[in-house]
Design brief:
Blueprint (H helix, E strand, L loop, with lengths): L1 H26 L6 H17 L4 H22 L7 H16 L1
Helix pairs in contact: 1-3, 2-3
Subcellular location: Membrane
Protein name: MtN3 and saliva related transmembrane protein
Organism: Kryptobacter tengchongensis
Length: 100
């Protein structure tokens, strides 16, 4: 029973990273907070090493490390440069044109 709960937790936490990581890959950048990503990666990597021998927690922390590492990559090396002010200006122009 305890192992089943661990597997459910593993799946739930890993599944939470999938939409964000998919969006980062699709867009080529992430808006996630850099400090959150760095601290999360360090924490999950440390717990991965600590959990060697316990496959549930090792797998959970390993996959969480991979998810945060992918997002860190797109934070440091975005494929697309974004300027939030420019994006807002463009969207308001499109809204004005649509209203005309």
């Amino acid at each position: 029973m305890k192992e089943t709960l661990g597997l459910i937790g593993l799946i739930a936490i890993v599944v939470c990273w999938i939409p964000q990581t998919y969006e980062s890959i699709k867009r080529g950048y992430t808006n996630m907070n850099l400090y959150f990503l760095l601290i999360y990666f360090i924490g999950s990597l440390s717990l991965t090493i600590y959990a060697i021998g316990n496959y549930v927690f090792f797998t959970l922390n390993f996959l969480a490390s991979v998810g945060s590492l992918i997002n860190l990559y797109f934070k440091f090396f975005p494929r697309v440069r974004t300027n939030p002010k420019k994006v807002n200006e463009i969207s308001s122009c499109h809204e004005k044109q649509a209203q005309s």
